[in-house]
């Protein structure tokens, strides 16, 4: 009686999960997405080197067991986190994505390359402020100890207080076109 809303939500999630599964298996019948298929899956072709490196890093971050493939569960976990996850979890995931060399901090070069890649992918290369100036501004604002690297703590705290930086992160994983693609194929699959 009192749980009717919960089962409706569960039903909705089950329908959505089924749609994601059909989309995934239609695009990737083997059940394992390679880097090449990942780029095709999300319509990412002809990227410049920075954008390509960013997409490869995103693939490696989604590939949680590091076997060189993204299986359906990794795909769902990543989409779920990006689309519905709590801000704290998203920020930790963004940090992992941006920490390209995996050393536990983000340096200026890593952040600069991410900013350039995001702009190239989103078609926002002509901004009021250059990628270099934006990177410097982020570091000036959130690199609390001034060591030229952002720790996880600095990154999370800075993202929560710097609206410009938060907006860039949100754009870096704007998956609205993917949700639309899944929704549009609901009737065609």
Name the descriptors.
globular; mainly alpha; disordered C terminus; two-stranded antiparallel ribbon; single chain
Could you characterize what this model shows?
- With 189 residues, the chain is mainly alpha-helical.
- The protein is 67% helix and 4% strand.
- A two-stranded antiparallel ribbon has the order 1-2. A two-stranded antiparallel sheet has the order 3-4.
- Mean pLDDT is 78; it is low at 1-7 and 185-189.
- Pfam families: EF-hand_7 (PF13499), EF-hand_8 (PF13833).
- Residues 50-85, 86-121, 130-165 form the EF-hand domain.
- InterPro entries: EF-hand-dom_pair, EF_Hand_1_Ca_BS, EF_hand_dom, Recoverin.
- One of its GO terms (molecular function) is calcium ion binding.
**What's the tally of helices?**
10
CA radius of gyration is 18 Å
Biggest sheet details = 2 strands, antiparallel
N-to-C terminal Cα separation, in Å?
Answer: 35 Å
Structural class: mainly alpha
Q: How many DSSP E strands?
A: 4
Proportion of residues in extended strands = under 5%
- Helix and strand pattern: HEHHEHHEHHEHHH
* Mean pLDDT, all residues: 78
Q: Residue ranges: pLDDT <50 for 5 or more in a row?
A: 1-7, 185-189
Percentage of residues assigned to helices: 55-70%
Shape: globular
Q: How are strands sequenced across the largest beta sheet?
A: 1-2
